[in-house]
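Treating backbone geometry as a discrete language has practical consequences that deserve illustration. In the encoding step, the backbone of a single protein was reduced to a row of integers, each denoting a local shape. The amino acid sequence and the backbone structure tokens for this protein are reproduced below.
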Amino acid sequence: MTQVKKQISPLRQLMIDEMNMRKLNPRTQIGYLRAVDKLAKYLKHSPEQATSAQLREFQIALAEQGASNFTMNGTITGLQFLFAKTLDRPDVVKRLCRVPVPRKLPTVLSVEEVKRLIDACHSPKYTTALSVAYGAGLRISEVVALKVSDIDSKRMVLIIEQGKGKKDRLAKLSPALLVCLRDWYKYAQAQNLMLKGGWLFPGQQPYNPMSTRQLSRGCLAAAKDAGIEKRVSMHCLRHSFATHLLEAGVDIRVIQTLLGHSKLDTTALYTQVATKLIDKVVGPLDALSMKPEEVDE
């Protein structure tokens, strides 16, 4: 049976070529194309000849429809790429404006909650994956992208290739995490779940990595079984890693390096949720309650 290929418009192909030329992340490309699709649906024709006024009206319509700030900013970024890069019409998007996004405090688990979460996993693969996320402070995308060859037990580091921002970095490999990884490797090899030198956390087929969605679902299931009422996600483990290190007295600049943050301000957010550090602070009201020293007359 002959497979019919879905035809795409010249404009869409041109935009795809521009994104491929710049080697944009596949998820970024999908987001940009989705933004253009939204505009085309709103205009009811190709956005190629859209005017500045039409784009402004489109953003107003998004706001009136109740689109979140994240959605609006993502859509604007996609349209800026289309008109500024693909069509070379940067003036058209000048009137579009990004919307401020409220900065919320990260959800942090206690050490006891992390242990309950990891213990609640029903599979050695998920137990190890969550242990890596917490033990090395990795993003979910970095966990599933790990290969067996990324474990450097001589230098006690994990090699993170092309993490967020297309940057390589080294993550901490603690002795306890190394033992956990070795146990998982032996189990996976015995069960024929892992190819030699392949993905550290394979998917249903060993030649593919586990998907972020699959790992996220496993984390949510473990949180439910552990009876944790907080809003748990894989990124919670990364937040908890940073917060617990900060509470243990590790220099914030070291934590910044381990997390791969470009700006110290991003890492400094954890000082607001490090409760052990906050508990050590003597409040001004408490100072008033202290026994004053006797004053010599």
Q: What stands out?
A: Residues 10-93 form a domain with the DNA polymerase; domain 1 fold (CATH 1.10.150.130).
